Amino acid sequence: MKKIIALMLSFCCITSVHAGATLSELLITEVAVTPTDGEFIEIHNRGGSIIDLTDVYLTDATFSGGGTYYYNIVTGTNAGGGSFADFHARFPSGATISPGEYQTVAMTGSTAFFGIYGFNPTYELFEDDGAADAIPDMLEAFAGSINGQGGLTNGGEVAILYYWDGNTDLVSDLDYVIWGDTAEAVDKSGIAIDGPDADADTSTYLNDTVIASQIIVSASTHASGNSWQRADLTEGTETQSGGNGIAGSDETSENLNVTFVETMATPNAAYTPPPPNYGALLITEISIIPTEGEFIEIHNNGLTSIDLTDVYLTDATFSGGGTYYYNIVTGANAGGGGFADFHARFPSGATIAAGEYQTIALSGSTNFNTTYGVNPTYELYEDDGAPDAIPDMLEAVAGSINNQGGLTDNSGEVVILYTWDGMSDLVMDIDYVVWGDKVEAVDKTGILIDGPDADADTSAYLPDTSIPSQIVIALNSHASGNTWQRSDLSEGVEVQTGGNGVDGSNETSEDTDNTFFEGLPSPNAASVPPPPSAPNVIINEVDAVSTAEFIELYGTSNASLTDVTVVLYQGSDDTIYDIIDISGLNMGSDGYFLIGDSSLTPEVTIPANTLHDDASAVAIYFSNASNFTIGGSLTTTDLMDALVYDSGQADDAGLLTLLNGGQAQIDENNNSNAATESNARCPNGSGGARNTSTYNQVTPTPAAVNNSCPLEDYYASVDPTNATTLRTTLHDIIKVAISFPYSNGSPNTWEVLSFADEDHNTGVDVNPNLPEAVWMVYKNNSYTYNGGGQQPYNREHTWPKSYGFSLPDDNAPRTDAHHLMMSDVGYNSTRGNKYFDYCNPANDGTCSNA
Questions:
Q1: Span 16-264: which CATH code?
Q2: Which string of DSSP letters, residue by residue, matches 94-162?
Q3: CB-based burial of residue 398 (10 Å sphere; 0-12 exposed, 13-18 middle, 19+ buried)?
Q4: Which of 709-718, 748-757, 767-776 is predicted with the least confidence, judged by mean pLDDT?
Q5: Looking at 219-223, 474-478, 618-622, 797-801, which range is the least confident one?
Q6: pTM to 2 decimal places
Q7: Chain region(s) in the chain for CATH 2.60.40.1260
Q8: What does the pLDDT look like over 7-34, one tens digit per residue?
Q9: For the domain 278-519, what is the CATH code?
């Protein structure tokens, strides 16, 4: 019976072994070189058997100048250690390391180690107390090879873990880590050596990696309190055959700069990878037409690889049914699986490398390849009869893809990239892009929800941007064969705190109309934004003769003036007489930029009498000032706008080439009042670039609306000959119109009024289908359009005591967009009870509220 029990024990228990295959499971997994009291080396058994450490050695002792190397231990001399903080140690006789265990060797003793980390090491290099303690001391590899000292150099050092049975000619490397520089590196290639075995024959080492090609963990030391830790237990790209390792590996070939990372020290414990840097993930390209070419591209803008296992992608929202992606935590009503909506998760274990671009083909890999000539990274679902090599996205919940899905191109859609750990109440947004009518937009503000965690408590979402204020890439689809591509990897003016994003960002706040552009597709690759275009800026007014000279530019509010230059030409020889560099500045928030006399408080000051009074020209170029020189010849290359003027002198044919054909040189003295009048576009901002037909001589209004223009200029093209010509010519003035049915909930009143009161000067009205700037009643200025509730203007009723349509009283006086106008908030408040505000007969007997 005893024999049977013994036999059973031999099978049930793990035995202690040190065969080569088992010893190869030993690794150096952590190295701390600072602070001195916290120096340690950690080893780990990644295998499934207990390993006997009796014949395992650890050293940092090399000195190439003296031929001092650890492998000389077989000769009994010149093997290093015992001085200059170098050590050559052996694990205590009978020491073992269990499967999966981590053990540390404290370089400056257990007491110092405990003082830094609050617990004991497994071993100490030498006894640092007056008397022996409970922590085993490392043994000297040979007499004097520790000598009560030893440690690790911050600037450059090597740590070598090796095996020797005490008899053979050659030692066997187990692991090898080098940092700082390669001065301490070792290359045993071709070394012939004879150990203490019975014969006198030498044995020769196989090739190590040449020192010049050995890869160091880091060129600089880690921070105090941190350590270098092994992030890859497979040893990266280390060569596994033909080397001097215990199982034939070349331990000097490991790509240590990849397999080790710097992080907070964790002695006696496994490396814990930081959570994925989801904040570095971005949606960078979207194709919504043609159907076969639909795809979404993501990009890792960070410095490390990101695990995508818990990352989701969806376009599934339906406000009418309360269907939203964040409901995934409840297991119901999270969308996808029908009506071309999808709710997908990346394949388990999928990763995206630092800097990598990946695509998800929404109509399958075959259609994608046919359209673009390359394969996608993933396909939403398998579009072939049998699985191919392209990984399929996973369903977020059962049926949430259902072999269908795509992006809407004719109305609007949303694409949301988010992460969820499968347990918490709240999901975290990674990126969010919406286009078109915003019917699919999402606002989670204040939503209370309970996920599958252990408690029954709800958690609340922080504020998203309200849907009316969310910015779309575009109101309409991109052209077939184009895509929308991200030009700004910093996400523009997106709010980075207080939101529902992974790092607290508010992903619904991005100005995607600025951070994306439309261009030719570039799936799986970085986009190439079009070269910068000239800002929409024109010369709006010039006063050259008065004592307070100025040049007024007008255009898009806050537009960058990078590489914009104002050039002044003289008519005497048609050459440059002054160059004004305004690069690096911006248009004002009101759309004006003033260059002038200091008394006008301009953005750029010019000395008195800078502007010539006789036949001269002011020109603005989208070209760096370095491209122009005083005395340089006239040029129309990169010309944005020009005004050729005089104060009673003859036309200059050379300067007139700066203008469009048929445009005139403008006389500031046309009214014989050059000293008190300026040349100004009438109406303000009218006429177009390089056209002078709308200039009038009026009272100067620097950095303000040209509101002293004759009123009849607006109707100058009207022909009152008869009813037909009058109607036709008036219609030509106002025919650019956009209609909105009362039955449509979108656009809302803010958007309708922004179209109705759009500032139509050519400097800011780039697209007649978009309200880039909104004109204010009363104050007679304009503001950049931002959407409802997010701007310095409000809706002002243009007839007394009128109400909107939301009141329950059917008999209340109503108004609609025809009776509302935009008004500056502060200015409107200052006006108080005046006409087009609340009309009170007690204050003004001429009005009535009847």
A1: 2.60.40.1260
A2: T-EE-TT-EEEEETT-HHHHHHHHSS--SEESS--SSS--SSPBPEESSTTSSTT-----SSSEEEEEE
A3: exposed
A4: 709-718
A5: 797-801
A6: 0.56
A7: 16-264, 278-519
A8: 333 333 434 444 555 899 999 999 999 9
A9: 2.60.40.1260
